[in-house]
Amino acid sequence: MKVLILSVGTTRAPLEEALTHHAPGGVIFVASQQTYPVAAELIRDYGGSFRHHTLLMEDAESLLEAYQVAVKVLKKALEWEASAIVADLTGGTKPMAAGLVLALTGRGVVFSYVGGARRDPETGRVLPGEEQLRLLEDPTSRFGLREWGAFVRAWNALNLGVALAELNALLQKPLSPSEGRFYRALRGVVEALMEWDRFRHREALGLLKKHLPVALAVAEAWGHGAKVRVLKGLEEGMGALEAIVEAGTKPTFPLLQDLLANAERRAALGRYDDALARLYRALELAAEADIHERLGFLLKDPRTWPEGFPETLRERILRPRGLMELLEAAFELDLAFSQQGTLAQRLYGQKNRLQALLARRHESILAHGTRPVEEADYQRLRDFLGDLDDRLRPLPPWPKF
User: Fold this and answer.
1) Domain segments of the chain as ranges
2) pTM
3) Alpha carbons 355 and 358: distance in angstroms, whole number
4) How far apart, in whole angstroms, are the C-alpha atoms of residue 386 and residue 63?
5) CATH 3.40.30.10: does it fit domain 2-140?
6) What residues of the chain score a pLDDT lower than 70?
7) What ranges in 128-200 are assigned the alpha helix state H?
8) Sign of the CA dihedral 284, 286, 289, 295?
């Protein structure tokens, strides 16, 4: 049924006009202690034709209370399973009307107002019989404020799928050319981040190069500080992405730091099993990246091994029985090439501590057990890595609004 929300003042006529025009199946009156008698009269005279409920305000000039009451009004309308909700703002105080608007915009509510051209010169009220009802468009619907707010919340929560859906909803609105250009470009940016989060770095870089400059240019032209700040932050982070793409399949520290940042995003979503699994891979990748950076060959690719590579380490490197065996082999490899104090050696030197930190990973359902990983388990290993070497710190997080 249609539900009409009426803010009640001291005059009946405009409220009667609203009741007649909208012909609601349910009416929720918002009245003050002083105007309750008017609501009671309307219920007495018209209440037989609709379901009704009344909410009273203690202070009709309190914007805070008006907002709180409006929230209760919406809840009641939804309890009645309203198919349409109309809020008439004619009666009551200005704070009452403002509270209704603040609480109900962006909720699919239609607003109405009873006015008229001919008014009493002394009171300013519309003359009896001259009332005219106007339907008022919710401006937040036209300008997509609800969708943009939902997009920002989804972006900040790293829920990129929802963020993309909200942008698609915005693109269904009647937009100006610059708005259409901005939201289409921003959609491309979100798609880029989704690819980046899947480790599809080349695809992510291509999308960012195409869409990020467009979105940033429009945001700067608008002078929207938050949008500019976020997009510039992404622009600054593209250097690491370009380094990863340039390196191809080679193990590098930018790739390692990206993996650590990916683990941070999983942890931010409460997915600690996934996050800890990424740190386990990061330990292996750390040894690979360190050897590649110092010695110039790929630890897992015999085709790149230099002369003098110890053949006794072949099987332990290519088919390790576990992470510790790989770290031990990397430790011995550095000794064979007269390397001292390397990252691989320092990692293996912390063998006992590492095994203790990784115990919960082995008990995880994603490894060999059935126990869930807790936040503290993830944080302990993350902090250990960051304290051991600055290169084992994640890339900066994606900027938030």
Assistant:
1) 2-140, 145-247, 253-392
2) 0.76
3) 5
4) 50
5) no
6) 117-120, 122-130
7) 139-142, 145-156, 160-170, 177-197
8) negative
